[in-house]
Amino acid sequence: MYNDRVIEEFRHPQNVGEVENYNAIGTVGNEVCGDIMQITLRIEDNIIKDAKFKTFGCTAAVATSSMATSMIIGKTVEEASKLTNKDVIEALGGLPPQKIHCSVLAEEAIGLAIEDYKKKNQK
Question: Annotated catalytic, 58?
Answer without folding.
Answer: no
